[in-house]
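Hi support team,

I submitted a single chain yesterday and got back a structure, but I'm not sure I'm reading the token output correctly. Could someone confirm the output below corresponds to the sequence I sent? I've pasted both exactly as they appear in my results page.

Thanks,
R.
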Amino acid sequence: MKPDNLQLQPRKMPVQSRSEATVDAILEATLQVLIAEGLERCTTTRVAERAGVSVGTLYQYFPHKQSLLNSLLARHLNEVSQAVIACCGEQHGAALQPMVGALVSTLIEAKLARPEASRALYMIAMDHGGDAILHEVQDKMCRAVSVLLASAADASFAQPQTVAVILITSLAGVLCHAVGSETSPETVHQHLNTMGYAYVKAYAVER
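Hi R., thanks for writing in. Yes, this is the structure output for that exact sequence:
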């Protein structure tokens, strides 16, 4: 069966706290195996052993390795998205410069808190449906940032959605490189803050 025809979603969703704990343990074990052994050696058998469950239990939730990897990626990206959306809510109506600074800080905290995890997840981000998950989550973030930019106390935008898309994808692209480099989070923050604010300022009209 070709990868495109595989069932990429979890086999079933956990509905009880014990099931949720099992799924969390399996996903965390998947991440640990990815970090320690790489994508090729990340098998369902190794993951089940690391999680302390049987392979049969793992297959109750994830029909195959790709479903497992996609679920891990979706969990991570949704955590990033939720953090960005929460930041947008907190910064709604703020001035443009602190607004951009808060967005940059949120993304850096989400991506660089566990750089080894981010590096492992980038390996699967564009693999067998990972790109679709990435685009869906980025769309959510861009919509939230578009609303945020439109609420700026000291600026307005003719095309806030376009500015939001380019801002988020640009910041994410730099962070993708940063997790694989030795650049300090403080340096990354300084440069991204300068870049992000300069970009949105260029397309803003002062109120």
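A quick pointer for reading it: The chain has a mean pLDDT of 89. Let us know if anything else looks off.

Best,
Support desk
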